[in-house]
């Protein structure tokens, strides 16, 4: 029983530290009116570097990259379903529970990611860094905030659970 209480306290501590880090790293939005535009720092430099390196790429590269980002999540999801199905066939209750909890955790992480986006309001780099930057993929609509990344959230939770 002590071990379970210790794990629960550890989990709550990690969640608290994570929330603190998100608050600390967020460029604004917490109590500020309007969207925050990040135009400097490592994130903006990385975006400029990536878009600059593919500026002369063929027109079919953008849709291919979009498909690859979505496809990676689909493949991870299919791997999770395969693990769940295999665990059912082997009557492995731990495997079944693990795959179900991974799926539920991914859904919860996505919801938390969306909730944080509503607080942070970080504009996407394709809109904030328009001057001199050619976007490879189509920029999502206004109000589809950048931070935290739903793709990264989904991929990390799925990889963590599958691993």
Explain this structure.
It is a single chain. The chain is mostly helical and 163 residues long. The chain has a domain at 57-163. Helices cover 69% and strands 0% of the residues. The protein contains six helices and no strands. It has helices at 2-25, 41-53, 61-90, 93-120, 125-128, 150-162. Helix 3 packs antiparallel against helix 4, helix 3 packs parallel to helix 6 (150-162) and helix 4 packs antiparallel against helix 6. It is flat and about 60 Å long. The two termini are 27 Å apart.
List keywords for this structure.
163 residues; mainly alpha; 6 helices; flat; membrane; PAP2/HPO_sf; Membrane-associated phospholipid phosphatase
Blueprint (SSEs and pairs):
Elements: H1 2-25, H2 41-53, H3 61-90, H4 93-120, H5 125-128, H6 150-162
Summarize the structure.
The protein has 163 residues and is mainly α.
Number of strands: 0
Helical residues, percent = 55-70%
| C-alpha-based Rg, rounded | 19 Å
Order of helices and strands: HHHHHH
Task: Report the span from N to C terminus.
Answer: 27 Å
Average pLDDT rating: 74
Q: What count of helical segments does DSSP give?
A: 6
Strand content: under 5%
**Which structural class matches the secondary elements?**
mainly alpha
Morphology call: flat
Biggest sheet: strands, sense, closure? none
Instruction: State the low-pLDDT regions, or none.
Output: none
Protein name: Membrane-associated phospholipid phosphatase
Transmembrane segments: 67-85
Keywords: Membrane, Transmembrane, Transmembrane helix
